[in-house]
Amino acid sequence: MEKNEMIFGIRAVIEAVEAGKEIDKILVKKDLQGDLAKELFDLIKGRGFFVQRVPVERLNRITRKNHQGVIAFISAVSYQRLGDIIPSLFEEGKVPFIVLLDGITDVRNFGAIARTCECTGVDAIVLPERGSVSVNADAVKTSAGALLHIPVCRERSIHSAIRYLKDSGIKVVAASEKAVMNYTRVDYTV
Q1: Over the stretch 9-42, which tens digit does the pLDDT of each residue have?
Q2: Do residues 28 and 70 make contact, with C-beta atoms less than 8 angstroms apart?
Q3: Which domains does the chain have, with CATH numbers?
Q4: pLDDT tens digits along 64-78
Q5: Which pairs with CB-CB distance under 8 Å and at least 24 residues apart come from 61-68?
C-alpha cells in the first residue's frame, strides 16, 4: 500500500474529511472511544462513507505507525453520481451505456474491466458502496489510465441503480460467468 493512498490518525482523518478529500473507506478500531473519536463519528455520520469496525490487529497489519485506531483510504478518482451522469448523456443525445459491477473485489480484475469499458465506449462504471473493489492507484495502473477518463459512480446498492436506470428508460442487460447466451449486440428498442 502506498503511503499517499491512506491517512491514519483521528485528527488527520477529520482534516481530510473537512477538506473534501475523496475517501474510499474508513477502518475504525472496534472499541474506539473518546472525545476526538466522537468528533470524527459526528463528522462522518450521514455522509455516505463506508466505515468498517475492525480489530486493532488488522490496523496494525496495514501500518506500524501510530494510527490511533483510524485509517482512511483515499480514492484515486473522484466518484460521480449516477443521477448526474444519466441526464447529461440524454442532453447530449446519447443512449447511455453504463456497466454495473457487483462482487468485483480484485483491483487488477477491475482495472482490466475498466480498460475494456473505455475501449468499448462505456459512459460510466457503477460500483456498490459495500463489498466492492477500492479504486486505488493499483486499479488505475492496471486500467492503463482508463479510470482517469471514465466516470466511476459509487451507489448505495446495485438494485437501486438498476431501478433508477429502468425508471430512466434505459434497457438493462445482465450477465454472469455462468451465462449461456453470447451477446454480440444489444437491441436498444424497448
Answers
A1: 999 999 989 888 888 889 999 999 999 999 999 9
A2: yes
A3: 3-74 (3.30.1330.30), 82-167 (3.40.1280.10)
A4: 899 999 999 988 888
A5: 62/1, 62/6, 62/27, 63/6, 63/8, 65/8, 66/8, 66/9, 67/8, 67/9, 68/8, 68/9, 68/10
